[in-house]
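Customer escalation, tier 2.

The customer says the design service returned an amino acid string that "doesn't look like it belongs to this structure." They asked us to rerun it and document both sides in this ticket. The original structure tokens are below, unchanged.
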């Protein structure tokens, strides 16, 4: 068993058949190489059999040295200590001559599964990994909560689709999710995918949403470059309203209400003391006013926007292991159409149709209080019956200890003087 560099074919075959993050893909390797990032495919082989694989990047730090990052890797069976030790001992020797100051490792390993109140549902029983890292002089960075512009988020909201069909998945959702999905399907909402030439449509939704919710979005180049290199492994669904269908559907609802009101009026005429009929007329009339408003809105929108009204879009990474909802935005003026719910439902069905076991709603803060900055997002994901995956976190190892001590001192100094 030995540490070695891997061919792209060896790396791709292993990561496609072993659970891994979308950053541990040949698509991402080719992207990094084109961007000029020093990138290697490394791993462990036992004879001809690959036992571990990792895409690792090296970036400059302090002009002379480099910082190594394993990009949610390595991909391996962490319970196999022989493979573990072979990889990380080999990694140390591999990085030393490359002037690497320190390496950051953030395994894509779940340590606990929780509900969206933060209660533990399942412990993965893999705390031995901490001991394995400690024995090789790695330091754990702690159990972080919140968002960081550099470090990967430690909490995901994930829907396990294995062994389920669409009906079972829908039945497990809360009433709001079910109602909004059915409403969107009924009232002329459709989904299509945007190509690279239409990515500005998605970007506009993201800019509007980030401004409204006051968060910092990735820049255009991130989304464009990933779509260029990941190809069909990045999907950008757009939900739009077919306004002809919407007006027809609302008209049908209105006609049904008018018919029911007429019947209730006849019942009241036959029996003026029929309080049930009187109450029904009052309720149905209020509903009719709401329906008439929707009908007028649909007609007005059709006049100003034409028949197709884009209302929301999202950005997804697709791997053999999971469908990852990276980001999404919508037009706040048209949120009542429930377009964001239909996108989620459409992509959940994409995962089911392609036999992909996990639907990953992606990052949440890990703060489950009502004061959490993403409290609304957590509640949205919770409603789909997702489970919170808590990941193991980051491990740091100095490769050049004297240089790393100097680097840490400089970082602390900058923090003190506010730079």
């Amino acid at each position: 068993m030995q540490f070695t560099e891997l061919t792209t074919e060896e790396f791709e075959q292993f990561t496609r058949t072993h659970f891994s993050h979308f950053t541990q893909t040949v698509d991402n390797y080719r992207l990094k190489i084109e961007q000029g990032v020093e990138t290697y495919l490394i791993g462990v082989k036992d004879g001809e059999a690959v036992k571990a694989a990792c895409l690792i990047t090296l970036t400059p730090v302090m002009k002379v040295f480099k910082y190594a990052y394993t990009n949610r890797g390595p991909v391996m069976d962490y319970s196999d200590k022989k493979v573990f030790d072979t990889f990380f001992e080999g990694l140390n020797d591999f990085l030393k001559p490359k002037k690497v100051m320190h390496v950051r490792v953030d395994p894509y390993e779940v340590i606990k599964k929780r509900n969206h109140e933060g209660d533990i549902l399942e412990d993965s029983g893999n705390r031995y990994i901490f001991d394995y890292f400690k024995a090789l002089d790695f330091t754990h960075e702690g159990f972080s909560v919140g968002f960081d512009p550099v470090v990967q988020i430690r909490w995901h909201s994930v829907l396990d689709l294995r062994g389920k069909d669409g009906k079972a998945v829908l039945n497990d959702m809360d009433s709001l999710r079910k109602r909004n999905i059915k409403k969107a399907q009924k009232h002329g909402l459709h989904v299509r995918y945007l190509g690279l030439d239409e990515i500005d449509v998605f970007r506009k939704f993201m800019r509007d949403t980030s401004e409204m919710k006051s968060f910092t979005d990735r820049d255009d180049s991130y989304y464009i470059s990933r779509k260029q290199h990941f190809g069909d492994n990045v999907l950008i669904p757009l939900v739009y309203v077919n306004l002809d269908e919407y007006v027809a559907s609302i008209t049908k609802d209105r006609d049904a209400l008018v018919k029911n009101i007429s019947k209730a009026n006849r019942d009241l005429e036959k029996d003026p003391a029929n309080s049930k009929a009187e109450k029904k007329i009052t309720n149905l009339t209020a509903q009719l006013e709401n329906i008439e408003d929707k009908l007028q809105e649909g007609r007005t929108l059709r006049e100003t926007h034409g028949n197709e009204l884009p209302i929301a879009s999202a950005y997804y990474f697709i791997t053999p292991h999971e469908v990852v909802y990276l980001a999404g935005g919508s037009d706040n003026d048209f949120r009542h159409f429930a377009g964001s719910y239909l996108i989620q439902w459409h992509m959940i069905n994409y995962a089911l149709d392609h036999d992909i076991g996990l639907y990953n709603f992606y990052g949440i803060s890990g703060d489950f209080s009502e004061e959490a900055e993403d409290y609304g997002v957590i509640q949205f994901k919770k409603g789909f019956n997702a489970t919170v995956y808590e990941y193991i976190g980051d491990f740091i190892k100095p490769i050049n200890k004297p240089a790393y001590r100097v680097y840490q001192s400089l970082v602390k100094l900058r923090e003190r003087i506010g730079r």
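Tier 2 assessment: The sequence is consistent with the input. Residues 2-106+394-417 form a domain with the Aminopeptidase fold (CATH 3.40.630.30). The first helix runs from residue 8 to 17. Sent an explanation to the customer and offered a walkthrough call.
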